[in-house]
Amino acid sequence: MSQIKFFITGGTIDKVYNELDGALTFSETNILTMLRQARSQIDLSPEVLMLKDSLEMNDNDREEISAKCHSCEESRIIISHGTDTMVDTASVLAKKIVGKTIVLFGAMIPYTISNSDSQFNLGCAVTAVQCMDEGVYITMNGQVFPWDDVKKNKTEGIFQAKTFP
What we know:
The protein has 165 residues and is α/β, with parallel strands linked by helices. It is built from four helices and ten strands; from the N terminus they run βββαβαβαβαββββ. The protein has helices at residues 31-37, 59-71, 86-96, 118-131, and strands spanning 4-10, 15-17, 24-26, 44-52, 76-80, 101-105, 135-140, 143-146, 151-153, 158-160. The chain has a six-stranded mixed beta sheet with strand order 4-1-5-6-7-8, with helices on both faces. β2 (15-17) and β3 (24-26) form a beta hairpin. α2 packs across α3 (86-96). The termini are far apart. The model has no long low-confidence stretch (mean pLDDT 92).
């Protein structure tokens, strides 16, 4: 299997608790620590693009992500992303990128906080990018969704198919 590109964009998964003011902030990515902790043997090429809350992402940020996906030589790409606008970014990528398998994932609870879903979602993304056909997908909560059939259920704190009642 060829190398997998891993773009890091921030989101809850990379936030840390600031003990002084109680805020969740960014200092550096947690993804590399997570991969070491998981003893991943996959040939990944990580690159930090930004560390942003997805609610603060704009069209320029999505264009940057899209351009990086388009220009990288790898055909399999994982993107860590905040959950609030993950579907928006997936939509942009699906309309602009062909011939590649792209999997976006994130977490509802930061990696640095107990009971985080981050490690599980990371593992699902690493597996999904190797198994899925070309296209854009979101993996959360142990499921892989096509980009155009997924929504965040903010009441339950999960992702589900749009067709789910």
